[in-house]
Amino acid sequence: MPKIFVTRKIPEAGIKKLIDAKYDIDVNPEDKVLSKDELIAFLKKGNYDGVLCLLTDKIDKDVFEAAGSQCKIFANMAVGFDNVDVSAAKEKGIMITNTPGVLTDTVAEHTFALLLAIAHRISEGERFARAGKYHGWEPMMLLGTDVSKKTLGIIGLGRIGSRVAHHAAKGFEMKVLYYDVKRNEEFEKESGAVFCPTVDEVLKNADFVSVHVPLMPATKHLINAESFKAMKKTAYLINTSRGPIVDEKALAEALKSKTIKGAAIDVFENEPAIEPGLINLENIIMTPHLASATEETRNKMAELVAENIIASLSGQKPPNLLA
Ligand code: GLV
């Protein structure tokens, strides 16, 4: 019976798939992120054939070594996999998988929720109402910004970026500009999106900039103090990708100095820490890495991660093999 270690409690749908496939499952007994040393201790003891890990686990060569040569797969329950050293896995002949596709709509919805919420000052208005400050309708109270027919700039036109662009173009008649390392002319025809050859061109011309690139050395601090200077003073930044893509200190400074109008972010540079300079600002909305957090989507992610493990340990190519 293959043995699987699950680094933290996940939705039952995924565990059930593994149990139905007659796998022996050990789940981290504490509902907390394991430190690297704790994870290594579990893996050394368990002789597992596979590990189901999460974006909060740092998976590197020490972890692969601790897992032992019988361990064939580390299956990450996330679309992003910057927490995993994929090249070290390749060297060791360990398979790495992720869970793309099943969360695209949910993350695109969350992105749009943030965009609408910051433009319409939803969080600020809510805080205001709860604080007992609402004493009647006023013509000038908490004025926001329209979204319809404005320009959305997408940085990274992958699955999620293109879904956000679709909603913008079809739902809100927005003009869409995008930068990506690869131009997608078919998508341009479908949506009317316009390709920009540089990030800067998107930044300069967009009313809302939404970031959808993976985190890798080339994208760390892709959005930085210079980027905020390039953006319109009236523009908003939305980030549902990975925190380190945006220089968080520079973001706090840009929001404080009104270099840009606002931001709405779901991810942070040093999660779970949040840059202290952001905490007391009114012109930012922050959600705690929730973009894929719906019951339906987390169930699907748990099922897909299990399918990847089952395929890999039954000699088939896992559906989402990265290495
Ligand atoms: C969430 O951030 C994911 O990568 O799935």
Write up this protein.
The chain is an alpha/beta fold and 323 residues long. The protein folds into two domains: 3-102 and 295-313, Rossmann fold, CATH 3.40.50; 104-286, NAD(P)-binding Rossmann-like Domain (Rossmann fold, 3-Layer(aba) Sandwich). 39% of the residues lie in helices and 14% in strands. It has helices at residues 12-20, 36-46, 61-67, 86-92, 104-119, 122-130, 159-172, 185-191, 199-205, 225-230, 248-256, 276-279, 295-313, and strands at 3-6, 24-27, 50-53, 73-76, 95-97, 151-155, 175-179, 194-195, 208-211, 236-239, 262-265, 284-286. The strands form two sheets. It has a seven-stranded parallel sheet, sandwiched between helices. Strands 2-1-3-4-5 form a five-stranded parallel sheet, sandwiched between helices. Strand 3 (50-53), helix 3 and strand 4 (73-76) form a beta-alpha-beta unit. It binds glyoxylic acid.
List keywords for this structure.
323 residues, alpha/beta, seven-stranded parallel β-sheet, five-stranded parallel β-sheet, 13 helices, 39% helix, globular, binds glyoxylic acid
Topology:
Blueprint: E1 3-6, H1 12-20, E2 24-27, H2 36-46, E3 50-53, H3 61-67, E4 73-76, H4 86-92, E5 95-97, H5 104-119, H6 122-130, E6 151-155, H7 159-172, E7 175-179, H8 185-191, E8 194-195, H9 199-205, E9 208-211, H10 225-230, E10 236-239, H11 248-256, E11 262-265, H12 276-279, E12 284-286, H13 295-313
Parallel strand pairs: 1-2, 1-3, 3-4, 4-5, 6-7, 6-9, 7-8, 9-10, 10-11, 11-12
Helix pairs in contact: 1-13, 2-3, 5-7
Residues 55, 78-80, 103, 292 line the site of glyoxylic acid (GLV).
Protein name: D-glycerate dehydrogenase
Domain D-isomer specific 2-hydroxyacid dehydrogenase catalytic: 4-321
Keywords: NAD, Oxidoreductase
